Amino acid sequence: MRREDMTWQYGIKGNDKGRVRCNFCNKEMGGGVYHIKEHFAWVKGNVTGCKEVLLAVKQQMLKIITDGKRKKVQRERDMEEVRRGYKNPIDEDEDQEAEFEAQIE
Fold first, then answer.
1. What domain count does the chain have?
2. Residue 35 belongs to some domain of the structure
C-alpha cells in the first residue's frame, strides 16, 4: 500500500486525470503531484511558481524535490556499480573448478 503524499495537504486532485489544483492560489495544472511540488517550490521549467505559498511550504517542497533527485542519482550509481561488479555465476564455477584442478595436479 502506498503512503499518501503529504503534498495533498496543499493541493487537490482535479476533475481530469493528472490535473491538480493549488489550495493557495487556486491555479489548476497538469502533471500530477510532482508538478504541484514544483509549483510550491518555485522550480522553473514545467510550471509557474505560486505567489501565495507559505515560505515553510516552499522550503519543504524544495527539500522533497532535491532529496528525491539525490536518491535517484544514488540508486543509479548503485545499479552501475552492481552492473560493473557482476560476474556470471557459471563463469565463477568454471574458475573455481580450474583452480581446484590446478591444485590437485
1. 1
2. yes
Residues 6+ positions from 58 with CB-CB distance below 8 Å? 40, 41, 42, 50
CA 4 to chain centre: 15
Can you spell out the DSSP letters for 2-14? PPPPGGGGTEEE-
Interval 22-74: pLDDT, tens: 999 999 999 989 999 999 999 998 999 999 999 999 999 999 999 999 999 99
Which residue type is seen at 52? E
- Beta pairing, strands 19-22 & 28-30: antiparallel
Asked if residue 28 is part of any domain, the answer here is: yes
The grid cell for 25 is: 492560489
Residue 1 lies in a domain: no
Q: Note if the pTM is more than 0.85.
A: no
Strand partners, 19: 30
Give the domain extent around 34. 6-104
Q: What are the beta bridge partners of residue 29? A: 20
Q: Which three cell numbers stand for residue 44?
A: 522553473
